[in-house]
Amino acid sequence: MKEVVFLVAIILVAGQCHGAEHGAEYPIYPLRMKTGAGGHYIPEISCASWRLGVEAHNVVDWTSIPEDCIGYVGNYLLGDQYRSDSKTVNQQAYFYARTLNFTDKDVWIFDIDETTLSNLQYYADHGFGSEPYNATAFNEWVELGEAPALPETLKLYKKLLNLGINIVFLTGRPLSQKAVTATNLKLAGYHKWMKLILKDTSIYHGKTAVTYKSAERKKLEESGYKIIGNIGDQWSDILGTNVGNRTFKLPDPMYYIS
Ligand SMILES: *[C@@H]1O[C@H](CO)[C@@H](O)[C@H](O)[C@H]1NC(C)=O
Ligand SMILES: *[C@@H]1O[C@H](CO)[C@@H](O)[C@H](O)[C@H]1NC(C)=O
Ligand SMILES: *[C@@H]1O[C@H](CO)[C@@H](O)[C@H](O)[C@H]1NC(C)=O
Ligand SMILES: [Mg+2]
């Protein structure tokens, strides 16, 4: 008899935990995701939350990735998830673009670093964004002109060219890197563009990327162009003014540029 009462009690409790009154079949463990089943801390889970926070622009102004998340971010970038996330964004951009009828005044803006060209090789050697930014070392890498294309962005680029839209590259790289950037773009498969805009540091020294990019997009629109799409890996690529009819944010858990 005792056993039967105990069993009934267990079934009742289990039923409540399963949210049975709403017909839900899954258990609800309020804190389980954070602590893990055995009460253990699982870095992968908090790092996934951190990355979501970064991509949604809830985590802002960070200078390097959390120490605990270096392994997680490295696995993300070198594994299939980064490629898959990148594909989803670029696909959505194409699904949007193909519904439009372009005129020769329509432009699509591409950022360069971590949007059209990948610096993953450099960052893999520098802790995936966990080391403080070293301008000297990064510029040495840029000057090699060997950054490969992000494959899913290259697909979008080619499809947009086929649709007949003008391509504008708008990058935070300084004007002094214009030649190597143009060479690198061609080497990576980006052969054609209407404009390649680099940062004139005599005008924009000390200004944020949001200020610089907004001002350059405004100039474009004031000269008669319409920005109908805009894609970048940083929120500063798609915030500010004249951002375009639709914006697309590519993943980047390595660094933050305001
Ligand atoms: C694009 O052009 C086609 C054919 O002229 C037309 O049917 C369609 O409505 C246009 N789409 C837009 C978004 O203007
Ligand atoms: C930055 O990179 C340069 C060139 O690789 C190197 O000589 C220098 O020591 C680095 N600085 C720091 C603070 O790591
Ligand atoms: C882009 O936005 C402008 C301003 O809101 C609007 O007039 C125009 O029709 C839009 N173009 C497309 C292709 O959606
Ligand atoms: Mg970028």
Automatic annotation (TrEMBL):
One of its GO terms (molecular function) is nutrient reservoir activity. InterPro entries: Acid_phosphat_B-like (IPR005519), Acid_phosphatase_pln (IPR010028), APS1/VSP (IPR014403), HAD-like_sf (IPR036412), HAD_sf (IPR023214). May function as somatic storage protein during early seedling development. PANTHER family: ACID PHOSPHATASE-LIKE PROTEIN, VEGETATIVE STORAGE PROTEIN 1-RELATED. Belongs to the APS1/VSP family. Keywords: Glycoprotein, Signal, Storage protein. Residues 1-19 form the signal peptide. It comes from the Eukaryota. This is Stem 28 kDa glycoprotein. It holds the Pfam family Acid_phosphat_B.
